[in-house]
Amino acid sequence: MTRCSLKSLMPETLVKKVCASVLATLALAVSSHAIAQNAGGTMVMIAQPEPPSLAPYLSTSGPIGLVAPKIYSGLLDYDLQLNPIGDLAESFDISEDGKTMTFNLRKGVTWHDGEPFTSADVQFSIMEVLKKFHPRGPNTFREVNSIDTPDELTAVFNLERPAPYMLRAFSAYESPIVPKHLLEGKDVREADLSNNPVGTGPFKFVEWKKGQYIRLDKNPDYWKKGYPLLDRIVARVIPDASTRTAAMESGEVHYGAFGAIPNVDVIRLRDFDEIGVTTDGYAMINPMALIEFDVTKPPFDSKAMRQAISLAVDRQFMIDNIWFGYGKPATSAMTSNYAPLGLYTPTANYPSTADVPAAIALLDAAGIKPDADGVRATAVIDLIPYGEEWRRVGEYLKQSLGDIGVKLELRYEDVPTWLKRVYADYDFSLNINYFYQLPDPVIGVQRHYGTDQIRQGTPFVNSARYSNARVDELLEAGAVEANADKRGAIYAELQNILADELPVVNLFEMEFLTVYSEKLKDHTVSAMGPYGSFDRAYLDK
User: Fold this and answer.
1) Same domain, 270 and 307
2) Which of 39, 189, 230, 327 fits as disulfide partner to 508, beta carbons 3.0 to 4.6 Å?
3) Which residue range or ranges hold the Solute-binding protein family domain (predicted)?
4) Mean pLDDT along residues 332-341
5) Are 224 and 317 in the same domain?
């Protein structure tokens, strides 16, 4: 009998609940008649902006995450209570010392090209792809020394030290399992798979008409009998915000997540009977809006300058006037959603409303004086190209930082150009961005501040090129500390250091909105929300 042993991680009652969920492997109490009644149809979703690739093993870019988990699978999925449930792994076992994780893989799964899925794919994906090339993989799997494959349906992870946080990182979005037979011996960054994905998920990649749409068709050999229910998913690229809103209003599209429909329009559309709005489905990601600085060169090599900028920002104003009330002011380098884990500490230099006099006094004391025109520094600010709200944030910052003598020029480019400029070329002074802090700081926060995360060419890591030996020590200690109180103390010290040095200024904890047609059912059935597989989604007839 397969085992699901989580005793080292969870209370016994929760263990029983999770184990039952895993061993049930998403068994659904739906009759074949009901499945037949709900099957068929084409769901149209908005991909905004257009994905730079379909390589979730290389980039965690949001638009990639929206499409790729319909194609690729992970070892696990997560229910709405964040409990792990089976996907490519039908069960798993964790040793008493927490240093061995054994995944029992699902039998009869095939890749979309017909090749069998085996434990060799798991080993290759983790050790040769995610640990080396994924933005978060090197941290997530840092403790994995090797993976044994005693047979085709067993993958044994051998850990240097226990890593309980890793259990939250096996979704198709976070850790996609990729086909060894299509990547082995190739340059992973340049392989054709990047734009012609082959997965084991419920939908098969068919066509990408650049600038127009991505088409995915039903996988007839999907392991879950009777699923997926939809015949097709079409991800439409609609650059203009008003056109996206009109398409949703007219019923041309069924689904828009991650602010694809601007909040200003959501306020109106949520009153329509045929349109639904939800904030569900984002519990695993903890998104944080922020400013990244290049701390290696003037003017943002100055700690006083970075502190002054944080003081001059009216976080509540942005939430109220740009995101129409959806969000919460940042108060630390880490999200307040870590509070139940004992890992969150509010810190200095994070006012919810602007304190311009304090910011000016700080700059004056640091000898950063204004010229005859009142200008203390000039810079270009690069805006994440994910929608009109980010342009408005840029416009707000241009005005508010102008009040303390920082003159900004706004730059808004397409996604590939922006990614290359910030993460490959380091050709920026400061940028507006957002990062997923995810369910544990080892997975979501460490990549932002660790010296070892200065990985040129890898998106969404330490582009500030910030390096602090004590921070590195704390990140290392926090990743392996099992005692909750000690771990909380480690991250409290870390947050206070980062609040003082501010290589990144967090702005607000984001609250994403999903807008959908009421005809579309079961689109949010896991904690991954928009990043889910959509194998159970259907159009009500």
Assistant:
1) no
2) 327
3) 84-450
4) 95
5) no
